[in-house]
């Protein structure tokens, strides 16, 4: 004996006003067949949530790869450690197909911290006054004559003005996590320098450099580096005169940063024609292409997994809905026999499909967004990137759900139309 309370089958007034008798019958049937209704909804929810989450994962993976590789100004970096490293670096920069080059030599020296005009934001990091007593490291970089001339012009000075002076870059970046483990970053100036300021090395009185201008623009070889110390960019002639005094190990090391037309051809020439012995080469274009290929393979696997889950869900939905419609053939026939029009009948069937799809999407779409947020948090632990809102995935999932349900409902209605009304009512075995 099945007990059904009147309040459980009470139909909201707005459904009856909008959809008439068919709407009321559809609503009450879904209330009666809760288990079958729930099974169908769960199948749709799983398919929708997984599709949206995987779509976000693939897009964020591609974004992370592009952020790390494709947006770099340079394509290749070669570190040379031979005694004639500088001469070999110049040969590399003269290779066919090389568009831009920075030949980087570097060193450091120390000055008294109390001689620098530190900014307030740098002095009071994390709400505590920083310990700026003692010495502070100053980094010195040269870029090669051509690159230094181009860099000078980009910051608004002439190479002739900067020949025996330094362009100073003094930005810092602070990255920290709050109590909720959320990643934050802040960028600001370490200190303020004026034209004519002279930095004199502590313990190396013969080393001094005059500041020409302060800038917030970095050379392209340093675009992904955060030094958190002042950096002086100088000419090759200044570096030649002071290289032995600078604290640098090893002094003969040189890094070449290249932007070129064909990285594969350039790499082939570097490895095969120049007789390099002690060197390290990083081809960022090749690394990007390899990572992107791997992501494509992963995407194919993931979308294949989604397709399998979706097919299982579609099969389950199709079997559940069509079986439910077949079991109710006698009920439908009786409704039509007592005066339900074809229009009301179609409205009732479409409304049932709307209930299935609407409830599933109300649950599946937020779950898909939550899954996307989890993927973003996992990927964002290693690289700062924007959250990808899976609008396209949500639209595709919503459209697919309603197309699927409309197809199933249309199939079931066409099947019912081909049956004889009186025979269906008389058939008690259904």
Describe this structure in words.
The protein has 12 helices and 11 strands. It has 430 residues and is α+β, with helices and mostly antiparallel strands. The chain has 2 domains: 6-67 and 291-426, no CATH class; 82-277, no CATH class. Strands 7-8-4-9-3-2-10-1-11 form a 9-stranded mixed sheet. The protein has a two-stranded antiparallel ribbon with strand order 5-6. A hairpin with a 5-residue loop joins strand 5 (171-177) and strand 6 (183-189). Helix 8 (284-327) packs parallel to helix 11. The longest helix has 44 residues, at 284-327. The model has no long low-confidence stretch (mean pLDDT 78).
Determine the mean pLDDT.
78
Radius of gyration: 35 Å
Q: How would you sum up the major sheet?
A: 9 strands, mixed
- Spell the H/E element sequence: HHEHEHEHEEEEEEHEHEHHHHH
Structural class: alpha+beta
Approximate shape: elongated
Q: What is the terminal-to-terminal distance?
A: 21 Å
Layout of SSEs?
Layout: H1 13-32, H2 34-70, E1 76-80, H3 85-93, E2 98-112, H4 120-123, E3 135-142, H5 145-154, E4 165-169, E5 171-177, E6 183-189, E7 198-200, E8 208-215, E9 231-234, H6 236-242, E10 254-260, H7 263-273, E11 279-283, H8 284-327, H9 329-337, H10 342-380, H11 391-417, H12 421-426
Parallel strand pairs: 3-9, 4-8
Antiparallel strand pairs: 1-10, 1-11, 2-3, 2-10, 4-9, 5-6, 7-8
Provide a quick synopsis of the model:
Helix content is 52%, strand content 17%. By secondary structure, the protein is α+β, with helices and mostly antiparallel strands. The chain folds into two domains: 6-67 and 291-426, no CATH class; 82-277, no CATH class.
